[in-house]
Amino acid sequence: MRSTKILLTLGLGVLFGLQSFAQGGEGDGDGVGNVKINVFDRYEAKVREARKLSFQPNFEDTTTHKIDVDYDFAPRIVETDVELDPIPAALIKRVELERYPENMVKVGMGNFFTPEVGIVLANSRSNSLTWSLAYDHFSTQTGALRDRVVFNDNFTMENSLRAGIGHVGQRWRFKGDLDINLRDVSYYGIPQIPNVNESLADSDPTRQRYYKYGINTRYERITNRGNDAFRGVDVGYYFLHDRYSAQEHFVNAMADWTIPAGDIDIFMGTGFDYLNYASDSATTNAYAVRVKPYIRHEVNGIYFTVGLNINYVGKNATSTELTNGDTATSRLYFYPEIRAELPLVKNVLNIFGGWTGDVDLNGLAGISEMNPYIAPGVEIRETGANKVYLGVSGRISRRFGYNLQADYFRYSDRALFTRDSAYLGTGFDPYLRIEYADLDVLAPRVELTYHHPSGIEVSGDATYFVYNRQNDLLAYHMPDFKGGLHVAYTWKKKITLKTDFVVTGPRDAFEPNGKVENASMPTFYDWRFYTEYKYNDYLSAYLSVNNILNQDYDLWYGYPAQGTRFILGLAFRF
């Protein structure tokens, strides 16, 4: 009992002692020990933000430790038996390759007294020197419809001789060609006029000839060491004369250059042309200095050419028709040279367009090739031409291709051929004359092609022409439209078949004055056919047929074409 009282007394003493210690010392204020506690508000518990738990392993939670591994290598020798088969001896023997014919002789004959002859000679294959010689003859007469012209003798003859030589060196290549072309035609285009020119039927029509002799050379670089500016040069010359003492000399030279400009090259063409033409009634001396700088580049799939074509032309002309005597003129022709091509879808859709231009001194040689029935002593003028074009091309399928294009031409002094209605009415004048005109031509066209693996090739084209000439004059002898269908087929390399069907729209020969009939020529169709059968690689036979439909149409007003003409011939190659 006493012990219990003692324990109680000790417990109370300790309790009061602790309370006194917790209250702190004097001057401390409210606090617990040395920590001051200020109570401002009631305590409220807060919930911590949620933390995203990921079940994917984290490399930070991974402990890596390299395992110590000891490798013991015990080298051992393994004996093997190797038996190699001997390489068989190569069989070497001489095999004679097939020799392709290098020469050819062709001889044919047709109705309307139409012979044709062709001869081609050439040297064997060579890496450095080549030469060739070719001769062609073609002539025909009669066959024009007698009921529309006085003369039945529509004689035409052409002889051409071409000789060429070429040499290829280590850095340069040279090529030279000699051309002789002798052409004879008759002025048979005199329409019949009752009680006026019947007596001419018993005579021969007057003939004209154009004999031309020319030479052309090309010297060009075939390797590029990176610092060669000169690329090559073309030089040519020809001399022409006709039956009526007209003579013409023409010289031309054109050099090509390359000028490096950073990561692209500037291409430069520089040239000079000289023309001397003289006849009994007119003479012309003309020259042209040409400069053509341009660049070719590709940017983001667009291929383009940008440049200029600058031509300075000087001319001195005389003519019996000129009242002022000699006339001296000079003119600067300035043309852009812009071409662009954008293949939107390779081999399927290609867009192209451009703006180009050039000037041609013409000359009797070029004029007579277009129309041999011109009057002797014609006047010669240069012709300038601007061309703007835009189109799309590509393939519809693996076998079908297409080309849609629109061309716009602007000509200055374009040569047009016309019959003079006043002279034509006399019944004795066979000539066509030249009228130079400033002319605009819009020519949209479409072309389609088809190829079949069996060897069939088919193509078709159609062009529509819209002419605009000053003073509402006509574009003489130029058709309103033109189109054609062309088919070729080769069967087992034995038989070749080709046919062309061409449609030419109406043309106007001269400005109608109400006194002369048939000033307009109607649409005509020209169907031609050619076939060749090869007996072997050396001998073949051929047949050609012109004007299958026997169409009555005029080549030029008053000059009717021949009827159906056949030519059958043989070709021998050796």
Automatic annotation (TrEMBL):
One GO cellular component, as annotated: cell outer membrane
Compartment list: Cell outer membrane
Keyword set, alphabetical order: Cell outer membrane, Membrane, Signal
Primary localization: membrane
Signal peptide: 1-22
Domain of life: Bacteria
Protein name: TonB-dependent receptor
